[in-house]
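Ops channel
N.P.: pipeline sanity check, posting one input/output pair.
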């Protein structure tokens, strides 16, 4: 934790200068469900304030109960940001985004001629957002994220034990990732074109995953919050089948090699 704090102070805080803001996610999205160390945000938020900045939490991917145990990522970390941004899930497919902040900060925007929002407060979008929030509550989707997410992760860990190329499996609720490596001994990232071959084979089985991670060797699993254990079992079985085919050399991996 202390190492990360020193990195923050040494890289984003200018010597003798101020700091506009620090922006972070409850759990790293494109980093493939990377979780910050416990207490990281508490200390970083203090550092931001020390330099006169605001703390912004991006809840686009982690918000609205997806983590299972908490409705918001900042709640999971036990901090209170100055500004919260969120989108996507709040509209359940309808284009909608939001920004929540304190009256003092909002007033600074309202009194500035440099900020405006053409579509802000659109009645139809707000109705879609309200209906989505009601469905999350009425259908118990946060609890479903906790239950089905745990079931998913248990299955992922079984696949990690079975398959040599499965590295770290991580996540919280229905915010998960699986890392692929050349082998467990070296832990080197599996080449991206191998990942593309795996994703294509999964697509043939009606499973679509996103890709992420620093080396592009992870699949990102963030399914709809209404998925069931049966959906999870189908997905895990498809993953198992594809990984088995890969190990047996039955996937046409080289057709995805950009150097061929």
């Amino acid at each position: 934790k202390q190492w990360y704090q020193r990195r923050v102070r040494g890289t984003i805080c200018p010597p003798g200068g101020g700091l506009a803001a620090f922006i972070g996610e409850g759990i790293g999205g494109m980093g493939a469900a990377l979780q910050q160390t416990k207490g990281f945000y508490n200390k970083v938020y203090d550092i931001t304030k020390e330099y006169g900045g605001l703390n912004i939490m991006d809840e686009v991917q982690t918000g609205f109960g997806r983590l299972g145990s908490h409705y918001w990522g900042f709640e999971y970390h036990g901090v209170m940001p100055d500004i919260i941004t969120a989108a996507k899930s709040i509209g359940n497919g309808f284009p909608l985004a939001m920004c929540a902040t304190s009256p003092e900060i909002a007033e600074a925007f309202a009194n500035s001629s440099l900020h405006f929002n053409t579509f802000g407060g659109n009645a139809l979008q707000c109705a879609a957002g309200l209906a989505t929030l009601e469905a999350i509550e009425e259908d118990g989707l946060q609890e479903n994220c906790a239950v089905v997410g745990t079931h998913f992760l248990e299955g992922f860990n079984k696949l990690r034990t079975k398959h040599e190329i499965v590295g770290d499996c991580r996540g919280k609720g229905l915010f998960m990732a699986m890392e692929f490596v050349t082998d467990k001994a070296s832990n080197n990232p599996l080449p991206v074109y191998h990942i593309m071959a795996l994703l294509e084979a999964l697509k043939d089985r009606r499973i679509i995953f996103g890709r992420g991670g620093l080396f592009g060797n992870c699949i990102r699993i963030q399914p709809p919050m209404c998925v069931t254990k049966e959906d999870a079992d189908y997905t895990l079985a498809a993953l198992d089948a594809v990984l088995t085919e890969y190990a047996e050399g039955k996937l046409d991996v080289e057709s995805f090699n950009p150097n061929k």
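N.P.: looks fine end to end. Strands lie at 21-25, 54-58, 83-87, 97-101, 166-172, 175-180, 210-212, 218-221.
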